[in-house]
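User: Just a sanity check before I run the rest of the batch. Below are the structure tokens for the first item. I only need the designed sequence back.
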């Protein structure tokens, strides 16, 4: 199974609705299993810098097959993954807002969100992911 453009747009729509509900203009990115773009949406007033962060979160969650927030503590100085965010051209983002999309036991892509606090980004991403979990696959 893979994420289609239709699936990605549904995820973005649900994420945007959540972002509006909590008054956070955000950038929402959906990628395939290899971290390549399927769709990206920048809401009005979302900071330009959030484009790269959102895509980095989606990429990280897809290729490392874990939510990005699990890396936060592991990447601190003295921890086993310290410096992870500096490799691969700095493309890995190691704070919350990126979630893998899973079909059975297989990661088929990811969603990444940037625009608010880490907690807000995670809420917005979870809203998009929920559409896939409710049968959009």
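Assistant: Here's the designed sequence for the first item:
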């Amino acid at each position: 199974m893979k994420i289609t453009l239709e699936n990605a747009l549904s995820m973005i729509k649900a994420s945007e609705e959540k972002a509006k509900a909590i008054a956070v203009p955000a950038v929402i990115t959906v990628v395939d299993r290899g971290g390549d773009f399927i769709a990206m949406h920048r809401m009005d007033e979302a900071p330009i810098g959030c484009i790269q962060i959102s895509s980095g979160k989606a990429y990280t969650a897809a290729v490392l097959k874990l939510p990005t927030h699990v890396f936060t503590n592991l990447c601190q100085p003295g921890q086993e993954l310290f410096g992870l965010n500096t490799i691969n051209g700095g493309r890995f983002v190691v704070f919350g807002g990126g979630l893998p999309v899973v079909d059975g036991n297989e990661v088929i892509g990811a969603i990444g969100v940037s625009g608010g606090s880490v907690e807000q980004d995670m809420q917005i991403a979870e809203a998009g992911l929920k559409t896939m979990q409710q049968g959009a696959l």
